[in-house]
Amino acid sequence: MTEGNGKEYEVGIRIAGNTLIPCLQAIAAKGYSIKHYFLANDPNDWDHPQRDAEKDTRLFSATSPAELLGLIAMWEVRGDDWQIKNGESALYDQLVESAAMYDDDGNVLDT
Question: What is the top-level taxon of the source organism (predicted)?
Answer without folding.
Answer: Bacteria
